[in-house]
Amino acid sequence: MPSNGFVMACGTGIENCDGLSSEVATICAAGTADQRQGAYARPASVWQSMIVRVDTDGNLVWQRVDQLKYDGEPGLGSPGWAMRSSASEFVLVDPHGDIVSINDEVNGIGLLRLVSR
C-alpha cells in the first residue's frame, strides 16, 4: 500500500453470456455491453487488466486498463489490433514505490511495472 492511498487490481470483462435473453444477450454476444465513450467492443471471455489508485479517502487518483501487446504490434483500436485477454491477479508496491502487477495473460503470465518516479 502506498503511504498516501491504496492500489486495487482485477480483470474486467464479461465472463460469459450464459442465461441471458433478449436484448441483453444480443449486447453481450456483440461485446458492446460497455457503452462508455471510447470503449472498444470485446466479446465475452476477453478480459482486460485494470489497476486503480485511490487516496486515503477513497477518491480516484487514476485508473488504467491494459492488455498484452507484443513489440511492434498496432495499438488499441488501430488497424490490425489484436484483441487479447489480460487480468491483473496480484498487485504490490515495491520498496521504491513502484506498482508491480502480476498478470494472467491469454498465453501465460506477464509482469507490469508502473514506475512512480
Describe the structure.
The chain is mainly β. The chain has a domain at 5-13 and 45-114. The chain has 1 helix and 6 strands; from the N terminus they run βαβββββ. The strands form 2 sheets. It has a 3-stranded antiparallel β-sheet, with no helix packed on it. A hairpin with a 5-residue loop joins strand 4 and strand 5 (99-105). The model has no long low-confidence stretch (mean pLDDT 88).
Sketch the topology as an H/E string, one letter per element. EHEEEEE
Largest sheet: spatial strand order: 1-2-3
Number of strand elements: 6
Parts with pLDDT < 50 across at least 5 consecutive residues:
none
| Percent in helix | under 10%
> Structural class, from helix and strand content?
mainly beta
Backbone CA Rg:
16 Å
The dominant shape is globular
User: Overall mean pLDDT score?
Assistant: 88
> In percent terms, what proportion of residues is strand?
35-45%
Q: Count of helical segments? A: 1
Biggest sheet character: 3 strands, antiparallel
N- to C-terminal distance: 16 Å
Keywords:
117 residues, mainly beta, three-stranded antiparallel beta sheet, 6 strands, globular
